[in-house]
Amino acid sequence: MKNIAEKKSIGSWVQTERAAHEAWAALMGQAPQAARLMHLLAARVGNHNAVVISQKTLASLMGVSDRTVRTAVKVLQAGNWLEVRQIGDRGTVNAYVLNDRVVWSGARDGIRHSLFSAAVVISSAEQPDKDALGSQPALQRLPTLYPGEQQLPSGPGMPPPSQPSLYGMEPDIPARQMSSEDMNEPHQ
């Protein structure tokens, strides 16, 4: 019996029905690039069957032109394989919501939502600061309390009229509580 730590994460699986596989096989013969695109998107969906990605990144991942991606998306829309929700006014970045009767991630119940969350895929090539990526200063992190720790302000305090806290009357400083899962993650 596998222990819980050895189980694959829920997000690493997508599921399909046999009829969907047969339809997918037919799509491969009729529109191979559309079938490839559907597989690429299915591999990246989040828990609510959606992924946000630009057409340029899709084209790069597939090794095809942007036009080929647009044509493949139209085929998938016409065949009711997915819905497209435009992000911004140009239509080059979209949320692709996969038909949950074809492919889904997670439990089958509760997947029909009018609001959805999505995995967001971005390419470094599309970022205006692409030359600086990887060399930015680290983001500020909230202080973290480990189990059993208390918040105790320290240091000399500010010049009068401020004074350090009296013992037992320390202010409650905001911080996030560290869970046991967080303790197992590497710290930056």
From TrEMBL:
Q: Locate the Plasmid replication protein RepL domain: which residues?
A: 33-108
* InterPro entries for the chain: Plasmid_replication_RepL, WH-like_DNA-bd_sf, WH_DNA-bd_sf
Q: Which Pfam families match?
A: RepL
Which portions of the sequence form the region Disordered? 139-188
Q: What is this protein called?
A: Helix-turn-helix domain-containing protein
Q: Which organism is it from?
A: Komagataeibacter oboediens
